[in-house]
Amino acid sequence: PHLPHISDEYVILFLHSNYYKVKETKDTIECYFTLRANTPDLFTNRDPFAPKNKAILDITNLASKCSTVENILQLANLLGSLEPKYPAPITHMVGFPNKTAEGYNVLLYRLAEFDYSKLNFADAVRVFCMFNDVKLSEDRLSDGYIVIFDMKGCSLGHLTRVTLPALRAFMHYIQNAHPCRLKKIHVVHTVSFINQVMCLVKPLIHSNLLNLLNFSSEGPESVVDKELLPEDFGGPLPPVKQLHEEQRKNMEENYREWLIETEIFKADEKKRIKKPSKGMFASFTSSFKSLDID
After folding, report:
1. What transmembrane ranges does the database entry give (predicted)?
2. Residue 11 in contact with residue 95, Cβ under 8 Å?
3. Neighbouring C-alpha atoms within 13 Å toward the C-beta of 29
4. Which end of the chain is more exposed for a tag (fewer CB within 10 A), N or C?
5. Short-list 217, 223, 236, CA closest to 146
């Protein structure tokens, strides 16, 4: 009784992600809606136009709005500098249009703004989840996903921006609640302090996810077919920045209302017959035994 009503298509998505194993599907659905209820910082305020979300997604170039040198200098003076400032996205999140030979979708995540002081980790995780919800909606029953995390531009300062509650919730979501088939996670342009990064996240990673991880000091072209990649990495596709802009607009124009509406997709703890155990990695299956999936 504590779970919201979901469509048959949504149930099929969860079934597909669990290879049509009913028990695992029940566990994933239970975890999905419980996590969304217990971590509002990550699963509410999902309007792409909300300032915090735009800071992650927006790639507007202020200089393009200044038609004269005088305007540029006026803008520079307002910003307290002799040089114009160019707002950039904090991150790039892109799904490539073509699939691998195995039929897998390829997703790329990277920093677009290297100044660590501008990164709010919880905001980035929220937008990451929004982006992935859109991709799952569009890709439907994908055979699998290859995920590329590009660490270019990452510094030790970025580690100081990571908050443990958001990181713990994020890792729990990816491993136990995200309705997709993860096939491989490539971490490219690895940094010299990758061991420190792994010390931070390894206690939160299950062994099956660890087996999916692959690290490369080179770029995305070292881990997937170059023909699948943007010109940034020697491939035939448009630049990452252009792909990001197109997909950002798609989210804003075609999925804004849906993203806002799905904020109600969460467990109602007042209606839960048996309260789940405390602790982020406790089992979420105890109260889900009554759910029937035909």
Report:
1. none
2. no
3. 28
4. C
5. 223
- Kindly report the average pLDDT of the chain as a whole number: 84
Helix H, strand E, coil C: the string for 138-164 is HHCCCCCEEEEEECCCCCHHHHCCCCH
Confidence at residue 79, expressed as pLDDT on a 0 to 100 scale: 39
Residue spans of the domains in the chain: they are: 8-60+89-288
Residue 94, token pair as written in the block: 């892109």
Q: Report the SS3 class of residue 239.
A: coil
Residues 6+ apart with CB under 8 A from 232: 239, 240
Question: Does the structural domain 8-60+89-288 have CATH classification 3.40.1280.10?
Answer: no
Q: Where are the alpha helices (DSSP H) in the chain?
A: 8-17, 22-38, 40-43, 51-57, 69-78, 121-139, 156-159, 164-172, 194-201, 207-210, 240-254, 256-261
Q: Are 107 and 88 in contact (CB under 8 A)?
A: no
Close Cβ partners of 53 (under 8 Å, ≥ 6 residues apart): 45, 46, 47, 123, 126, 127, 130
| pLDDT one-digit tens code per residue, 236-251 | 999 999 999 999 999 9
Q: Closest Cα to residue 10, out of 182, 172, 133?
A: 133
- Count H helices, E strands: the chain? 12, 5
Reduced to 3 states, what is the DSSP secondary structure of residue 290?
coil
Range in 145-149, 216-220, 272-276, 285-289 with the lowest mean pLDDT:
285-289
Residues of the chain by 3-state class (helix, strand, coil), percent to 5? 50, 10, 40
Residue 278 three-state SS: coil
More confident residue, 274 or 19: 19
The maximal CA–CA distance of the chain, rounded, in angstroms, is 68
